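The pair is quoted verbatim as follows:
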Amino acid sequence: MRHLGQEALRIDTTGLPLEWIDYKDAASLYAVDQVVYTLGADIYTVFGGINSITGKRSQINVNSIIATKGRSKHFQDKINQYIPAVKQPNIIQA
């Protein structure tokens, strides 16, 4: 396992990279069930408290690549401003 300074890559469900996130953000995404799937190896384990009923300690294993539901606000702003470069010679006519 690596130290907590190692960041994980957050991607959307199509595999498009969104952002690099630290261990706190990664653990939060796992905790609120936003992680759809993971790729790569575990880079660290975040430990939580001990359950008073079961006596087990909670833990979240964070992977190096995390696919999540939704997109970041920054990324969504970029998509909203995107204008595709289409030129007349590139358009196929039937």
